[in-house]
Structure formats: C-alpha cells, structure tokens
Task: structure prediction
Amino acid sequence: MARESVHEGTAAGLKLYVRVIPKAGRRGLERIERDAAGDAWLKVAVTEPPDKGRANAALVKLLARILGLPKSRIRIMAGETARTKTLLLEGAAGEIARRLEQELAKAGIGTDGSGK
Result:
C-alpha cells in the first residue's frame, strides 16, 4: 500500500520522507511527488553538492530553520547516501506537523501534491 503523506507521527517525533535535489539553483521546499510505488516524498532543494555529507548537512540546516527546530533534533534515519531519505524530527509530532503544514501552505504546496 502506498504511503499517502510525506510525514507520520511516532512516539519519538515526526518521520519526514524527503527527496533531496543537491546542487540546485536555489534552496527550499519544492513540491510533493510520488514515486513509481505511489509513495509520497517532499522534494527539497539544496545548493550544496552531494559530497562528503554537505547536501545532508544543508538539508538539516534548512529544515531546522524552516521548522524552528534545533539541528540536533533532526536525524537522518535512512538514506544517508541516497536522494530519498527518512528523517526523524524529534519532539511533539503534532506541533511539528502543524508547522510543516503551515510552511508547505506558505510555499504554495498542497498536501495532495498540488502546487509549484
């Protein structure tokens, strides 16, 4: 069964499923995409290259700034060397999800994949 949302709450915080675009012309939240299996991914652009963890560090820094979280509360759980990653945003899942939804709306990104 396909994953419908780019995030899901856990006891430890919010899992966020992202597809990173390194070496992009600009950084930010781009859109929600679906892969061949139908799973939803939040496409996030960073300007740094995928070299020695620079794109990963840029991703964590960007999400920390956008969501108002300390970088230390954002962990890459899966996909360290891949473009698709599962992140854990530690804290109150409901509050983090609310902030994420607000930022997606500000960026014109619908949770159904519409926008941008």
In short: The mean pLDDT is 94.
